[in-house]
Amino acid sequence: MIVDLKDVTKSYGDISILKKLNLSLDSGKSVTILGHSGSGKSTLLSILGGTLRADGGEVNVLGNDLLNSNEDSLSIMRRKKLGMIFQHFHLINHLNAYENVLLPLEIDGDIGEEQKNRAKDLLSKVGLADRLEHFPSQLSGGEKQRVAIARALVHNPDLILADEPSGSLDEETGKEVMDLVFKLVEEQGKSLILVTHNKELGKFTDRVMTLDKGVLS
Fold first, then answer.
1. Which of 141, 173, 184, 200 has its CA 20 to 30 A from that of 150?
2. Would you kindly state where each structural domain of the chain is located, as residue ranges?
3. Are 75 and 104 in contact, with CB atoms under 8 Å apart?
C-alpha cells in the first residue's frame, strides 16, 4: 500500500476541513477525488505531499509516517518519491523548458548524462522535443502544463499528486493534457491521486471518490 490515511482530521480555528478521512491506495493504482471549491481537496493534497500536517489520525505515504516525520525526511520524500502537477504550472520564468524539467534533479544534486537524457526523452514524450530552449513566456498554457508533467516525472517518482492539472486550460487543451497524464502514468506504472471537479476524468482512473464538507466517500 503506497498511501494509507486513517481518521485524518484538519481544522483551521473553529472550521473543520477534514473529518476523520480515510484513504488507501495500492502501488500502481489511481484514484480521482471529486469535490467542489472549498471541499478540502487542496488541503488533502497538501497533507499527502507533506507540506501540511494533519491535526490527528494516521498519515502514511510512501512508507513514511508523515505526522511524525521531521522536515528533512519530508523533503527527501518529496524530492525522491513524489511528483506534483499543479493547476498553474509553477514553472521558473528565467529557465527554459529543459532547465525547468531538470530542476528537481539539480535540487537533489543528481545530474548526469542519464538524467539529462531522461529529461529530453520526457519532453519528447509530451510533444515538446522542439521546445527545449523555449522559456515559459514563449509557451502556450498547454505547453507549459506539458513541461510541468515532464518535470513531475523526471526523478522517477512512485506517486503522482495532480491538483486540477487541466483547470486553467480550455476544454480541448485540457483533454489533451489529461490524456497525456493518464498515458504516461500507465506506461511508467506510477500511482496517481487526482483531485478535480471534473467528473469525466474519473472514467480514466481505477476508483472515484467524492470529498464533500470534509468527508471522503
1. 200
2. 3-210
3. no
Q: Which residues contact 211 (CB under 8 A, 6 or more apart)?
A: 21, 33, 34, 35, 39, 40, 41, 44, 195
pTM across the whole model: 0.92
Whole-number CA gyration radius for the chain: 17
**Cα(168)–Cα(77) distance, integer angstroms:** 28
pLDDT digits (tens, 9 = 90+) for 19-56: 999 999 999 999 999 988 878 898 999 999 999 999 99
207-212 vs 30-34, strand pairing mode: parallel
Could you say which architecture CATH assigns to the domain 3-210? 3-Layer(aba) Sandwich (3.40)
Q: How far apart are CA 71 and CA 149, in angstroms?
A: 25
Task: Mention every residue, 6+ apart, whose C-beta is less than 8 A from residue 215.
Answer: 19, 21
